[in-house]
Amino acid sequence: HTSRGAFSEVRLAESRDTPGQLFAVKIIDKKALKGKEDSLENEIKVLRRFSALQNESDGQNNGPGLTHPNIVQLLETYEDKSKVYLVMELVTGGELFDRIVEKGSYTEKDASGLIRQVLEAVDYMHDQGVVHRDLKPENLLYYSADDDSKIMISDFGLSKMEDSGIMATACGTPGYVAPEVLAQKPYGKAVDVWSIGVISYILLCGYPPFYDENDANLFAQILKGEFEFDSPYWDEISESAKDFIQNLMCVNVDKRYTCKQALAHPWISGNAASNKNIHGTVSAQLKKNFAKSRWKQAYHAATVIRQMQRMALSSSGSATNQAAGRSGDTADAISSCINGGASK
């Protein structure tokens, strides 16, 4: 997260025209980007393709953009001498793992529903020739605090237009990265499917499939695709779930499922996912393995902001301004939390 924190921050913004209408603004410092301008151009180019109105920056209006309900939208971009401002849809529901820990009951069926939404969004991206390349739980956010809120894919920092289906930059996050990336082979859309396999695994047991303090050992495990469904954690999990994961975390790229194949698997599209409550075991492991105090603070700060928004809406005049001022401070706190990095 250092690179992200080093040249960008996220702030809460309110519409001048429609008070109470809130957005997230990603502010990117051009000076800090020395040598990385291309990746910024790229991120904006990708985001624009997934925005409601394709921007006319290229001199032509390309009509409606390629929107998907599970992909965070870019609404507008602004630029001044030193900074680029990306106005994005605000998602306020918090991070995936936090929500699971807070739930009372949680089943394979719940996990399957989450993964189905991610697969549908990524399948849509893949059809448009875009590979995300950095799918991980931190990039999966709930749209709202509602119990039945949808999940959203955010942060295309590393995503890249797919040229000729082959990309060869090593990037991504160690625990989620596909073997072909580590092997420095050319790679494509299949890397996202591998990452979704890793996330699915974690959603069913609360700990990662590959883990080692030592990067070299971790990489060796991933390259061989060595992971277990250890007892007792996996004893209650259906065979269908295990089969699904094995088809996604498959070292052989030609045999690995595509998003479409994964969507057709009975664990996603049929009734194979169990309704047994696995909340106790999974949440205990999630707390142990993904205790990220910074994210907890950011999540708390977001809750504070929501309370302030309610206060602001229910009062008016000077009270509103005070609340707005305070929520701005909290937004700063969120920025520093989120950009302070979130390593395990």
Question: What is the compact description of this entry?
Answer:
The chain is α+β, with helices and mostly antiparallel strands and 344 residues long. It has helices at 2-7, 37-49, 96-102, 108-127, 179-182, 190-205, 215-224, 239-248, 259-264, 266-269, 279-289, 293-314, 318-339, and strands at 8-14, 22-29, 74-79, 83-89, 130-131, 140-142, 151-153, 160-161. A hairpin with a 7-residue loop joins β1 and β2 (22-29).
- Range of helix content: 40-55%
Instruction: Report the mean per-residue pLDDT as an integer.
Output: 78
Query: How many β-strand runs?
Result: 8
Question: What best-fitting shape do the alpha-carbon axes yield?
Answer: globular
H/E series: HEEHEEHHEEEEHHHHHHHHH
Quaternary state of this entry equals single chain
The CATH architecture of the largest domain is Orthogonal Bundle
Low-confidence stretches: 56-61, 158-173, 316-344
Give the number of domains. Answer: 2
The CATH superfamily of the largest domain bears the name Transferase(Phosphotransferase) domain 1
In spatial order, strands of the major sheet run: 1-2-4-3
According to CATH, what is the class of the largest domain?
Mainly Alpha
